């Protein structure tokens, strides 16, 4: 949350966060709707964000985009398995995190090409 702040792009409303600590609460919040993007920690235990992401993709329709924070770049294959639309490795680079969030939240016509 500190890496993203509240104002990421002029075409987006201010970011609002819902911070939760357990898998059942994540699932309940996404099932209730109103969440535009889920950012899950892939390194949590006992239920990791990667497994939760996969479960959400199976159970929530429509499921919002999901980003997972992974322990290292080499774990990108696990993020792919989870069906998350984006993965950002630790340590979190705020610029990369912001670009990925914008890619998931902005319509393609409003996105700038990567530089």
UniProtKB/TrEMBL annotation:
Gene3D superfamilies: 3.40.50.2300. It comes from Rhodococcus chondri. It comes from the Bacteria. The lineage of its organism: Bacteria, Bacillati, Actinomycetota, Actinomycetes, Mycobacteriales. This is Response regulatory domain-containing protein. InterPro entries: CheY-like_superfamily (IPR011006).
